[in-house]
Amino acid sequence: MSHDSAEGSTSTLGRVRSIIGLRTRIRRARHHMIVGRAVVTAGHGHFSCSTVLRQFLWSLRRPSLRRIDAAGVSVLARFGRDRSDLFIWHEIFSENEYGVVDLADPHLILDVGGNVGYAAVWFAERYPNARIITIEPDADNYEVLLANVADEPRIHPIRAAVASAGAPRQQVMPGVHQHGGAGIITRPIEDDTAVVDPASIVDSIDVATVLDQFGIDRLDLLKIDVEGAEIDILGHSGPWIDRVDAIVAELHEWMIPGCEEVFAAATAGFGSRTRVGSRATIDYVRRESPSLTA
Question: Do 60 and 191 sit in the same domain of this protein?
């Protein structure tokens, strides 16, 4: 190869690297803008300007576990790049995502898709007489969940993937729209040895089995947020749906078409219906009983 050819190749390679580097910096800047917007939005009305700035800086650094003391609760959240805990905190504690639930005094709540425990903590704060079972499949999320509910004896955590009865073990994996601890999905596996990361394998459990294990004849409220797995859970709800008085679910029709149809079919026997949201909607249904909202 001639000297000129070598210089040309080197120059071309340098330009390619520069383009790749520029694109990487643009992606990082875009991500930082998204994180910054989420932090500012979540902090509005709950934190001082200095606290919001501090949280923003945490979000740009290496992953760390910090405590959030606001909205009447004290919980842990993971900060750092590609972390979604603060966003979920905002949805539940700031936007009051589950405020649509109008039950008067529920005593038994099943939280399917517990993430890091924010929903369970929210329900425990709102309903002082409630016992809450919260189920989360992801190991990292579950570790934070355990810390967040450790001081509340009314919350009972379980690490498992809720699925239809008889479903095989599940592999926990990031979804297409996964961000940090949110967007985690599960898929059934028939052969554990084919999974590279054994820690990502989790047992399956169905709703009827959970109710039976805890001696629950009637469940006051079932909360579901499982990134599309509701199509399997509710699609096979015949054995247990009559034992449930109310359901609040985040439906992911935009991810898996058919979720809304399955939800409507499974809850056909429920009277009151409320829907909030646009993309990932929150649907709330309950049976027509004066005692539930009295």
Answer: no
